[in-house]
Amino acid sequence: MIALPAVSPEVLLGCALASLAMLLFSAGMLWISLVRGFGSGPGSIVAAMASVPAGVLCVALQLSFGADVQPPSLRAVLMFIVAGIFSTYLGRWLVFRSIETIGPSRAAGVQSVSPLITALFGWIFLAETLSGAGIFGIALGIAGLGAISVGVAPASGAGGMTRTARQNGFVFGSMLFGLGAAAAYSGSNVFRASAVREWDEPLLGTMLGALAGLGALLLAGRNQLAAYVREIRAQPVGAWTYFAVGALQFVGQVLVIASMKYIPAGLAALISMCTPLVVMPISYFVLRKQENLSRATVLGICITVAGIALVLLYGRPAV
What we know:
Blueprint: H1 9-33, H2 40-64, H3 74-102, H4 104-111, H5 114-125, H6 132-151, E1 152-153, H7 163-198, H8 202-220, H9 225-234, H10 236-259, H11 265-272, H12 276-286, E2 292-293, H13 295-314
Antiparallel strand pairs: 1-2
Helix pairs in contact: 1-10, 1-11, 1-12, 2-3, 2-8, 2-10, 3-4, 3-7, 3-8, 4-7, 4-12, 5-7, 5-11, 6-13, 8-10, 10-11
């Protein structure tokens, strides 16, 4: 029997912060899945805009409690900005698209590979080596993703789409949008983990990143802004839903960064990205008319999560 290490109060606190972030991310994915007819383009901008008032409010609360603000490090500020562009611009838009394409449960299942990519990025960019258990965990995670794609059973949609067309939509949507979002969030985790250890200001760092990501979204979508404004005015309920989800995601990002002070970044990413554990059962029991999950899909998600746990708990050398 393998003895588990003793868990300190600091580790428990870090795991609790990352778990709360995971619950907020899960709530956002489920909430977004209920929106109909509101595109991910304007939705991404509205969600990013929510980060500004949410960040100002959180920073004001921090200052009101008399917390001191550490002087910034230029390198850390730049890393927070790049991380914000990766998550707010690339990651958020891609994950919204994956939810639209394949539904919240399968999107969450593909997103669960993000910590595996984080471990890979850590090996490439941070010179962190992987043990044999880590390599096996990556292989296990890939096998889980394969089971997800094979076992998917899309719900019948309007327009009489054929089964092959729906399967092709899942393959392209999940692999391009879902894995793209996972890679973007993984990159942001690596940048934030490095940044917060130089400048211990997760709130200010997250707000800087959110502002940078919003600027990137506005710049990339400048030709569609007029159409986005019309869509927002025509569907205020959808716009407010994305705004609320954006605020939840901002708080979740702050919690993940804060958890990295107490637990390794890989473990924080593991816990925060285990959204299938929440999204999958709720989506099945509450939104079952929208999605049909086969046993292979459920098994694939579980295998992927098991692979992530193996990589991040036993695949990295102790530091």
